Amino acid sequence: MTDVFVRDSPLRRSYLWQGGHTLRSWLLSTDHKRIALLYAASITLFFFLGAVAAALMRLTLIDPQGRLMSAETYNKTFTFHGVVMVWFFLIPSIPATLGNFLVPLMVGARDLAFPRLNLFSWYLYMVGGLFTIACLLLGGVDTGWTFYTPFSTMFSDSHVILAVVGVFVVGFSSILTGLNFIVTIHTMRAPGMHWYRLPLFIWGIYATSIVMMLATPVLAMTLCLIGLERLFGVGIFDPSLGGDPVLFQHFFWFYSHPAVYIMILPAMGVVSELICCGARRRIFGYRFMTWSLLGIAFIGFLVWGHHMFVAGQSMYASMAFSILSFIVAVPSAIKVFNWVSTLYRGTIDFHAPMLYALGFIGLFMLGGLTGLFLAAVALDVNLTDTYFVVAHFHYIMVGGSVMAYLGGIHFWWPKITGRLYSERMAQLAAVLMFIGFNLTFFPQYLLGYMGMPRRYHQYPPQFHALNVLSSIGAVVLAISYLMPLFYFARSLRSGASAGPNPWQAAGLEWMTSSPPPEHNFVETPVVTEGPYAYHEHEEQA
Amino acid sequence: MNAHLAEHFDDPPQQKEAAMLGMWAFIATEVLFFGVLLAAYIVCRWRFPAGFADGSRHTDLLLGSIETAVLLASGCIMAVGLREIQLAKQRSACLAIVITAALGVAFLVLHGMEYVDEYHEGLIPTVRYLQNGTDADSMEVFFCLYYVITGLHSLHVLIGVVLLLVIAERTRRGHFSPHYYTPLEIAGLYWSLVDIVWIFVYPGIYLAGHSA
Ligand SMILES: [Cu+2]
């Protein structure tokens, strides 16, 4: 490994070499690029932990009797899967890795505004993660990732407090990350980089950061109240003490619905970058794209009640929340139309990042449209708590966010590491992922429509065939998730040198060397044009 | 002047702008932390008007009012401290910050006295709650929220006192001048947050329903 570094001069002039190469130099680094890699390594670990839990569930559900595990173990498995995937993978995924790496590069700054705070938030993430692992090792928690009261406060005898503390701590990590991005984007843009010249990835991260900062405190405080209720019998959510368990649901979803936008807004930013580069076109309707990102973030705060249509909320509240949920679909649809319009008459290159981006559009559309089914009160009364809901949010979170995250990792891999990977293998993985994903989750729409409830480890025999199909899909999906580990490892060992801009992409991050030097740019760049100037470059060439 | 400039900033104004915006963003998150608790308080108060009014009558209005006065006075003196440093009067700035911190300590002591009284009266849920009567149950919810809200606020006061003492020491050593006093201004912003939260707590918990 060291030999390669010494021989390879771009690496010697990069952040990978300049900051030192001891473990200490990584664990105490305040370089946003190194912190991004620390995050990348840790969220990958948690992703595979959560994936093991998912695999165990799919394995159990091959058998209608669910003999592989007891009902209780099954409850703990899906809770672990949910908690880990939501808070330790999806929420930090794009912001903390690609965001950390790219925000200063894309705005033309030398680092984030608060580099030490940035490192501190990684440590918070790790401490939260340790609590969650400790909770698992001591026997797990069985409340579901939603921690609904009064079950979580009065009845569950599993390790609720450990899990809640873990999520509480990791919440602070995401608040501080959001704060850091907001300040950086406001105050550290390079000369000439005014707001409407920012790449859409930055707008996506900006909108996400607002949601992180304004929604996460509500979750933290609510979880704190759960802890107090279990420890000291404080009765705010406890009906036997006069408290209100539905109040918990209001607080929880006030965070957790916007949390969906923490996952999808940065994904939309990534996809905008990939589409423009892959089609060699300027984005269609740039200003609509920026304002729809902010619009989604804003309206997203007003729709939480659609999770509570059957929780005894007033009929009129449900009607209002239903209408608002339909309205939030409008800016999302604007984005899909604009991506498609960008592709129109483009010179499309079907390289791996583009395949992921196209996969994102398809899966996000299916997830978004089924969201409208669930936003309609009359339909939701039938579909709530069935596999239809499970399929819906997996289309958004896995089909949407994870596809975009992986697309982004493929796109910026040459920038991050300075090396190319096997394009063939990457294309194969992207296609397999699309097929495997649909095979896993489309049957779950049908199962839910037929009435199979979620969170059960047994089911009547008429659901057998579709469940087996879904489990087969999970195998394909697992293979497609493991493949990048191999070809990325090979790329690190023996990949060809990438050069500063292997995709001929527009954007400040491609103007510096790959991997970038420790302070990103040799000279502070001066920006003279808007993003995605692909046409102009083509004409000059 | 450039001694305070971190290497990733271009110039001192940019650094100051980042620090101030960061603090305002932090304050926004704090508002939401307390917002959840105040929302829970409003919802429960609306559900149990009688028990909550009863709860308010059991709080110590006199001590609560003195605490309010102490906290507001401290905020005013902190603002004086900021003005003094802008006028390059390090010594009186340091004095103002120390007085602010001392008033913060006074607030904590007064609040501690309230807690002790409540312990003797048996008003602390699960620890020592000796109330009975028709509204005793909902009054218990009132006191749960009372302790969570005032407890969290007092924690913020405590952190603020430590912060102010650090800033006072740095002022004494001459770290700040009219050209550079960002940490002092940030500490002042934090202290205003502590003040403003109390401005909502005092009428909501102590005053509402007290005369009914
Ligand atoms: Cu929702």
UniProtKB/TrEMBL annotation, chain A:
The chain crosses the membrane at residues 36-59, 79-107, 119-140, 160-183, 203-232, 252-276, 288-309, 315-334, 355-379, 391-413, 425-446, 466-488. Keywords: Cell membrane, Copper, Electron transport, Heme, Iron, Membrane, Metal-binding, Respiratory chain, Translocase, Transmembrane, Transmembrane helix, Transport. Its EC number is 7.1.1.9. It catalyses: 4 Fe(II)-[cytochrome c] + O2 + 8 H(+)(in) = 4 Fe(III)-[cytochrome c] + 2 H2O + 4 H(+)(out). It is a multi-pass membrane protein. Gene3D superfamilies: Cytochrome c oxidase-like, subunit I domain. Residues 11-528 form the Cytochrome oxidase subunit I profile domain. Pathway: Energy metabolism; oxidative phosphorylation. It is found in: Cell membrane; Membrane. Belongs to the heme-copper respiratory oxidase family. Cytochrome c oxidase is the component of the respiratory chain that catalyzes the reduction of oxygen to water. Subunits 1-3 form the functional core of the enzyme complex. CO I is the catalytic subunit of the enzyme. Electrons originating in cytochrome c are transferred via the copper A center of subunit 2 and heme A of subunit 1 to the bimetallic center formed by heme A3 and copper B. This is Cytochrome c oxidase subunit 1. It comes from Dyella acidiphila. The gene is ctaD.
From TrEMBL, chain B:
Its main location: membrane. It is found in: Cell membrane; Membrane. PROSITE patterns: COX3 (PS50253). The keyword Thylakoid does not apply. Pfam families: COX3 (PF00510). InterPro entries: Cyt_c/ubiquinol_Oxase_su3, Cyt_c_oxidase-like_su3, Cyt_c_oxidase_su3-like_sf, Cyt_c_oxidase_su3_a-hlx. Residues 1-210 form the Heme-copper oxidase subunit III family profile domain. The keyword Transmembrane applies. Keywords: Membrane, Transmembrane, Transmembrane helix. The chain crosses the membrane at residues 21-42, 62-82, 94-113, 145-168, 189-209. It is a multi-pass membrane protein. SUPFAM superfamilies: Cytochrome c oxidase subunit III-like. Belongs to the cytochrome c oxidase subunit 3 family. This is Cytochrome c oxidase subunit 3.
